[in-house]
From TrEMBL:
Pfam family, one: Zn_clus
InterPro entries: Fun_TF (IPR021858), Sterol_Uptake_Regulator (IPR053157), Zn2-C6_fun-type_DNA-bd_sf (IPR036864), Zn2Cys6_DnaBD (IPR001138)
Keyword hit for Transcription regulation: yes
Domain Zn(2)-C6 fungal-type, chain residue ranges per copy: 12-42
Signal peptide: none
Gene Ontology MF term list: DNA binding; DNA-binding transcription activator activity, RNA polymerase II-specific; zinc ion binding
Entry annotated with the keyword Transmembrane helix: no
PANTHER family noted in UniProt: STEROL UPTAKE CONTROL PROTEIN 2
Keywords attached to this entry: DNA-binding, Nucleus, Transcription, Transcription regulation
Name used for this protein in its record: Zn(2)-C6 fungal-type domain-containing protein
Source species, domain of life: Eukaryota
Length: 365
């Protein structure tokens, strides 16, 4: 007796269509998707098969971490072509930024206004900044909603990698129009690098992570050092980011002095925190040492010279002051342990004091 086939329907959800299984068309979420705990997306009423497919691609592109961009019928430049399609997933990320993430970057009210109001405005005109915002929000949701961490991590990587490509292209022709947006993205990229998930025992990648930090932070400074664009960045809505506040009392030089060595600058960072108190420290106070570190120190760090690694180990004490925020929690201990593993026995004793301060002495021989 021939097998009785079910009546085909074109109204099922896209997930069932992709799996080639029958959809019971229960809304808002069919039985199959409910059992598999996956997103259930139905095409809009009256949509053609082709248009349904395009809508689904737009909705799922971020959720699945797809690297394919949806084609359009209008002519667009390569940079504009990489602008994110505003589907539900993207709206969730922008909402997350506006109600939560923007308040976790600084404790200073004036700077919070910059991150809450002005940074999104740059995103309205710059797809680079917009993707940077969504990438950071997605990482924040990785921490807040661990049950969906794979999905949000895919979204974070997609938006961040695409923004990096766009920023690299924009840097080829930086001008007064795009300089502020590129600078804003460089700040978002630094925070993104700090916020990336850290595996507790993955210490062998720590040095590479630190090098990534150094390159990003020094790249941010290099944008500011382009004198012809400097005024457009510092004198606009981003100006509160450059107000030194308590740091002025130490009367540091405005320019990086080649004669400064890494230890002297590290001492200045400790002095800043001691004078202001931990709760008054801003992100710029913490990372100022990385900005001022001499080039020869960075060269030695890239070569993994023990002396350079040990100096950074002491900097982990300063990093601890940023752990009030989600994107730096646990960073000081993680980085210090990674540095410890990269040192030989004859140099590990140099880290005794910072490890003692972070409560790590009993964890190591």
């Amino acid at each position: 007796m021939p097998r009785q086939s079910h009546k085909k329907s074109r109204k099922g959800c896209q997930q069932c269509k992709d799996r080639k299984v029958k959809c019971d068309e229960t809304r808002p979420k069919c039985t199959n998707c409910t059992k598999r705990s996956v997103e259930c997306l139905f095409p809009p009423p009256g949509a053609t098969t082709r248009s349904r497919s395009r809508v689904y691609q737009a909705q799922q592109r971020s959720l699945q971490g797809s690297r394919e961009e949806i084609s359009t019928t209008t002519h667009m430049s390569p940079i504009e072509d990489m602008s994110p399609a505003m589907g539900v997933a993207e709206m969730v990320l922008l909402h997350q930024y506006s109600v939560s993430t923007c308040f976790t970057i600084s404790r200073n009210l004036a700077l919070r206004t910059v991150w809450q109001i002005h940074i999104p405005h740059f995103g309205f005109s710059s797809p680079i900044v917009l993707r940077g915002i969504m990438a950071l929000s997605a990482l924040h949701l990785v921490q807040l909603k661990p049950e969906y961490q794979d999905s949000y991590l895919d979204q974070a990587e997609l938006h961040h990698e695409t923004a990096l490509q766009m920023a690299a292209a924009a840097l080829q022709k930086i001008d007064k129009e795009n300089a502020p947006s590129i600078y804003v993205f460089s700040l978002l990229a630094c925070i993104f690098s700090c916020a990336k998930p850290r595996k507790p025992e993955d210490f062998w990648k720590v040095i590479d992570q630190i090098i990534e930090w150094l390159n990003l932070i020094r790249g941010t400074v290099s944008i500011l050092l382009l004198n012809e664009h400097d005024g457009f960045i510092k004198n606009g809505p981003l100006s509160p980011l450059f107000i030194l506040g308590h740091r002025k009392s130490l009367e540091w030089e405005a320019r990086i002095q080649p004669s400064f060595n890494a230890i002297e600058n590290l001492g200045k960072s400790f002095a800043t925190i001691h004078e202001m108190g931990s709760r008054n420290c801003e992100t710029a106070d913490i990372f100022m040492w990385l900005v001022r570190a001499p080039d020869h120190y960075l060269h030695f760090f890239h070569q993994r010279k023990p002396e350079a690694l040990v100096i950074f180990g002491f900097f982990c004490m300063i990093i601890r002051e940023l752990e009030w925020t989600w994107w730096m929690q646990g960073a000081s201990s993680h980085l210090l342990q990674g540095i410890y593993y990269h040192l030989g026995e004859e140099h590990r004793c140099w880290l005794h004091w910072p490890m003692q301060q972070l409560g790590l002495v009993s964890s190591f021989p």
